[in-house]
Amino acid sequence: VQLVESGGGLVQPGGSLRLSCTASGFTFSDWYMSWVRQAPGKGLEWVSDINSDGSRKNYADSVKGRFTISRDNAKNTLSLQMNSLKPEDTALYYCARGNERTYNSGLGRGQGTQVTVSL
């Protein structure tokens, strides 16, 4: 399982970023996928997940209405569109195999991409 995130960076409050994750080493279209994040000094926080065909999406309350998860099974990519970013969204963002309940069960996670929201 290989997951490689990209798209992070420094953005001002209220700004937008789009994260991407390229998957390989497994049949991407068979799996639920998640985005999770870890803020400095805190534990992993599940952000969003999407089912195998992209028809069902779930979000943490903290990002609902601001973030949108999507996937392209033809390209083995997972995306997270983040709008109206807040300083509390600052974290290392990971894509992970699995859903909200299983993403932290050793199914695979990337190295992460840093998102910093600051003036």
Attribute tags:
mainly beta; globular; six-stranded mixed beta sheet; four-stranded antiparallel beta sheet; 119 residues; 10 strands
Q: How does this structure look, described?
A:
By secondary structure, the chain is mostly beta strands. The chain has no helices and ten strands. It has strands spanning 2-6, 9-11, 17-24, 33-38, 44-50, 57-59, 67-72, 77-82, 91-97, 113-117. The protein has a six-stranded mixed beta sheet with strand order 2-10-9-4-5-6, with no helix packed on it. β7 (67-72) and β8 (77-82) form a beta hairpin.
Question: SSE layout and pairings?
Answer:
Blueprint: E1 2-6, E2 9-11, E3 17-24, E4 33-38, E5 44-50, E6 57-59, E7 67-72, E8 77-82, E9 91-97, E10 113-117
Parallel strand pairs: 2-10
Antiparallel strand pairs: 1-3, 3-8, 4-5, 4-9, 5-6, 7-8, 9-10
